[in-house]
Amino acid sequence: MLAAKAINSGDRRVRVERVFSILRRHGWLVVPLGTAAIAATLSIVFFLPDIYRSSATVVVERRQVTEDFVRLTITRGVDTRLQRISQEIMSRSHLVSLIDKYGLYSDLRKRLPVDEVVQCMRNDIRLDLEGDRTHWSGGTVAFTISYRGTDPRTVAMVANELAAIYVAEDLKARERQATATTEVLRGKVEDIKRQLEHQEQAMADFKRTQARARHGNSEKQLGAAGNAGAASPDASAGGAPAENTELRTLAEEECLRTLNCGERVENTPGPEFRALRRNYDTTLRTYQLFSTRYEEAKLAESLDRDQKGEQFRILDPALVGERPVAPKRPHLILVGFLLSLGLVAIAAAVAETLNTSIHTADELRRLSTVPVLASIPCIVTETDRRLAARRLWLVAAPTIVGLLAIVAASYFVASQNTSLAALLS
User: Fold this and answer.
1) How much is the pLDDT for 89?
2) Global pTM?
């Protein structure tokens, strides 16, 4: 058992020695490559800007007047309103004004077009909705608007500015919508009122026509009754005057009874009048309904104007960040160091695989059936030393130039690159 342990220990020692020998043989490759990888890692981590983030919380306050008192005229959900306002705030004109006001992205504005700078600011703004949207109809609704940047004071000011814009834009949008709703309902009420007046006029005209027709019929019937009464005394010319008067009175009474009966029949509404009446009743109910909604819309508009309706309010303003949220430099350095070691190991393994030369007597013994009698160590002369030093300088000079190029490229890539810093956090 001890022998087995000694053999295993010897094998591990041989493997370690082989690894170091491979690294020594390909030092011209692994040293510059590893140095470049570590330099790139350290340069990028060093040049990445400190990222601060500040957030402002906005709460949606319910209307101060109960909905039993006034019906809600603005029916769009909070998330829909937020999306619409976000589209307006994220527009090019709004963001350019904020960039100019606070002097944001000064370095990027020297190198990139305005549209790309605006897109960078869009990436630095974040809107987070709090709570479950399915319960927004009855509970408290809140959202946070946050902004990230390199200067903590400016970041806090921009976050508060964005929150204030959300509040102001929502108020203006609600006032515009309430006014538009009121105007639409007012126009609808006026149209229905004119329609109602026309129908009333039609019914009145119909009644006057019917009255004139009844009046003409009555005159005709009374004239016919008078002629009949006058004809009866003429037929009995020898009769007494009292009897003639009685006969005329009876004829007139009979005529009046006939007229009253006809008048009652005519007063009964016909199909045409009933149709007019039905249309009038329907229009009257519609007028009453829209009049009620119009009054509710005016009251809702007044509440929004007095800021007693549902509105956005800044609950917690953004504060100046004390510590950066990104990048996590210790983690990045550790990850970069491990990646550099992995790159060096892969490069050395590939170079060793492609190299078919024999370096030690043991390798020769494994590859040849002829016994190896002796091995002569490498004799290094002064000329060899000078050549080695020259090769070292030939390798070191490009390496130094490459390192400087890597540092410059890292500065160009990482400096003021808040998106990269946030991505690597």
Assistant:
1) 92
2) 0.61
